[in-house]
Fold NADH-quinone oxidoreductase subunit K.
Amino acid sequence: MHLAYPAVLAALLFCTGLYGVLARRNAILVLMSVELMLNAVNLNLVAFDAWLSRAAEDTLHSGQALALFTIAIAAAEIGIGLAIVLAVYRNRGTSDVDRLRDTAEGHDPDDPDSDATGRALPAPAAGEKAEATA
């Protein structure tokens, strides 16, 4: 098999994972997209190892060994990442990345009594009517 086929497939996998990281809001889907990117790297490692071992008459297979290390690191990363996501979901009640960033900055976008900086708006005086802001 020619080297271009697995390289193109790995590039498509990596681009799909990159799109998932940049476009998704759910933290679990972001972790799955990172795993997709790591699998694209593993595919490249194994494909280039097979191609170079045929060209150099080498039997070391270091690319496949590196792929095994990458798989072990990815398994540890997904385990720790999932534990963090579950802990954040338990504390905050959401796994939406945008809402978690807003709460970390001290700004709740759903709170009508706060402005864009997250500070509470002053309460109207006793004799004044509350004006509606557009």
